[in-house]
Amino acid sequence: NQAVLYSAHYDHLGIDPDAKGDGIYNGAVDNGTGCGVLLELARAFAQSAVRPPHAVYFSSVTAEEQGLLGSQYLGMHLPLPAGQVALDLNYDAILPVGVPRSVNLGGAERIDFWPTVQKVAKAFDLELEADPTPGAGHYYRSDHFSLARVGIPAFSIDQGDLFVGQTQEWGRKQGEDYVAHHYHQPSDEYQADWDFRGNAKLAQFGFVLGWLASDQPKTVEWLQGDEFEAARKASRAK
Predict the structure, then answer these.
(1) Which end of the chain is more exposed for a tag (fewer CB within 10 A), N or C?
(2) Do 102 and 126 form a contact (C-beta atoms < 8 A)?
């Protein structure tokens, strides 16, 4: 009863019939990158010479852009009881611009697995960045939230602003440029000069976190007093 779930959404906004020229919302970063990570994680677990301690599930959900509808359905129709899922790790838009030296794991500090997350981040030479805009409610705007609502400890693995060989300001500008010019736009499409080494690093990071979460002597829990603690207790009682 220590299964681990990896998730990512594969939908985007479709086609704009009124657009001039290319009106296809490709969603290459948001969230082709997350789906790519999901597929490689599945490949890594399947080809591992050592079998994972418990079951591992991979789910690409739809309708994230329409209000997390796919992950909400998943949370209501899980392949096993929510109380038997140790952790959900979600990937949503990993900008392929270099090798990250920091990550944003908003929500991970709310679960008792947090000390392990800190240790693994240090081993991967990843600084833990705080959410720069907590008032924006990012935790409640990605698919991990749907799993948290049914009690599963869950968070997304997002790159921070620090990249190997670059200043933090450079990293911040990469994210700002993407949001200003490509986020939810037809221009969010594959570019030949993208650097996917960072995506691979964050996939490896998530692989280790999932393996360790599955291998714990007891399943992961929300910290006492957290808003999702009651849902976790209810799921464990079923």
Answers:
(1) C
(2) yes
**Kindly report the CA angle at 62 between 56 and 64, in degrees rounded to 5?**
105
Distances, alpha carbon 96 to alpha carbons 17, 80, 186, in Å: 29, 34, 17
Per-residue pLDDT band for 132 (boundaries 50, 70, 90) equals confident
pLDDT at 20: 77
Residue among 234, 61, 58 at smallest CA distance from 149:
234
* pTM for this predicted structure: 0.95
Q: Tell me what the mean pLDDT of segment 83-104 comes to.
A: 96
What's the chain look like in SS3?
CCEEEEEEECCCCCECCCCCCCCECCCHHHHHHHHHHHHHHHHHHHHCCCCCCCCEEEEEECCCCCCCHHHHHHHHCCCCCHHHEEEEEECCCCCCECCECEEECCCHHHECCHHHHHHHHHHCCCEEECCCCHHHCHHHHCCHHHHHHCCCCEEECEECCCECCCCHHHHHHHHHHHHHHCCCCCCCCCCCCCECHHHHHHHHHHHHHHHHHHCCCCCCCECCCCCCHHHHHHHHHC
